[in-house]
TrEMBL record:
The keyword Secreted does not apply. The chain crosses the membrane at residues 20-44, 215-234, 240-264, 412-433. Keywords: Membrane, Transmembrane, Transmembrane helix. It comes from Nocardioides plantarum. This is DUF445 family protein.
Length: 438
């Protein structure tokens, strides 16, 4: 073993200790910078910032798929958008498939909103509007009859319609509940809202995960420093100028990969080398569920947005037709004993036209209270409770997929960014200290 001792002695005496010891410090600082700037790449900017390049849009179609995925390339631009905001719609889609579809059906969400209370609120808001609605419809459809009708009889019509309101509105909310699975599509609601409001997806990460994200940045220094020790040894033995930049690529790529692994893996506690490892986000799934539920209930699947989707969404025409059909018998009941006389006086066709017009007008009026922000906020608590409970019950792997979906396919950009910075760090150290042994 004398040869080994002699070799080690010669190796230690020949070391450029300043260059040797500064390599782990360089890689540690570079590791910290990689993860710090990587977080900026993840979340900022919210919208694409860049410039359009003539011919880029056409060229993009023949580029490798990975390059096509870079923000703006397929649109013919060069620039950047945060990875999470750029994939907000995709996260919404996967969130629905992995989680929200398991959290509850549209019918369950609707029942959490307490249809009976919705009906009471609609009656309260709609009752004062009945005279104006009746006046407008009857004046338009049968102006002479309505103008000549004595005021006491008009008042009787108003009161009759108002008395029928609870029954009419009950029919509306019941019909919505029966057909809600065909009328409401949470997936479209979530995807569209995330795409229009990418800041919400950023908030999901930031509001519960900022502590873990900051820890990832700090671990960047630790990982970089530890990886820099074998780099220093290899560089001191190899005496080649190209070693540091090449090994810097490895360190930069690995540092980012370890950072992502630290946050998301393993999904369940696992003992490795006597140490229990668990993804940092997964450790706080319960707390994350509360944050996630609050954002979804307060901003995405709200009573206000459900009402808008029912009337203005892709199935809005179907909603209006269904509710108008449900309202017609109730309006017939509101006419009471005078129904037969009215049909004779103004004609069956005219009477049916008036009934249909009232039903059509009433559809929009009955769902208007869905747009009441205060009432919507009060009902959001029940949606929040449902989503929080079900999210806590999600298998850890499904929870990881839901949270990681916005960035998984684009993680290579973070790793490439780390590799480039690692190479830059290697060139910088080479420029300052030169090659060891030379």
């Amino acid at each position: 073993m004398d040869w080994l001792s002699d070799w080690l002695g010669d190796y230690v005496r020949g070391l450029d200790w300043l260059a040797f010891l500064t390599i782990p410090l360089f890689t540690g600082v570079i590791g910290w910078l990689i993860n710090w700037s990587g977080l900026i790449m993840l979340f900022a900017p919210l919208r694409f910032h860049g410039v359009r390049v003539p011919g880029m849009k056409e060229l993009a179609t023949v580029l490798p798929r990975k390059l096509q995925e870079m923000p703006g390339v397929l649109q013919g631009g060069i620039g950047w958008q945060g990875i999470v905001p750029a994939r907000a719609a995709k996260m919404g889609s996967i969130a629905v498939d992995k989680a929200i579809a398991k959290l509850g059906t549209p019918a369950e969400f609707y029942q959490q909103l307490e249809p009976d209370r919705i009906a009471e609120h609609i009656v309260t808001v709609f009752r004062p509007e009945v005279p104006e609605l009746v006046d407008r419809v009857l004046t338009a459809e049968s102006p002479r009859l309505w103008r000549d009708l004595p005021q006491p009889l008009k008042e009787a019509v108003y009161h009759r319609v108002q008395a029928q309101l609870p029954s009419v509105v009950g029919t509306v909310t019941t019909e919505i509940g029966i057909h809600i699975d065909q009328l409401l599509d949470p997936k479209i609601m979530v995807i569209d809202h995330f795409q229009d409001n990418p800041d919400l997806v950023v908030r999901i990460f930031r509001d519960f995960g900022q502590k873990e994200l900051d820890m990832m940045v700090r671990f960047g220094f630790v990982f970089g420093f530890l990886l820099g020790i074998p780099v220093a040894v290899i560089d001191s033995v190899g005496h080649q100028g190209w070693l540091l930049p090449v090994l810097g690529v490895v360190v930069g790529w690995t540092t980012n990969a370890l950072g992502m692994w630290l946050i998301f893996e393993p999904p369940e506690p696992r003992r490795i080398l006597g140490i229990t490892w668990h993804g940092l986000f997964l450790k706080r799934q319960s707390e994350a569920a509360e944050v996630y539920a609050k954002i979804i209930a307060d901003d995405v699947i709200t009573l206000e947005r459900i009402g808008t989707f029912l009337l203005e969404g892709p199935r809005g025409d179907r909603t209006r037709q269904m509710l108008a059909t449900a309202l017609r018998p109730a309006i017939d009941q509101a006419a009471g004993p005078a129904r037969g006389a009215l049909r004779v006086a103004i004609g069956g066709a005219r009477f049916d036209a008036i009934r249909d017009q009232v039903a059509s007008e009433a559809v929009g009026r009955t769902l208007t209270p869905f747009q009441d922000p205060e009432f919507s906020a009060r009902q959001a608590g029940r949606i929040r409770g449902l989503i929080a409970t079900r999210t806590k019950e999600l298998p850890p792997r499904d929870f990881v997929d839901m949270m990681r979906s916005a960035i998984k396919e684009d993680e290579w950009m973070l790793y490439a960014h780390g590799a480039i910075m690692g190479a830059a760090g290697g060139f910088l150290h080479l420029a300052v200290f030169g090659t060891q042994g030379h």
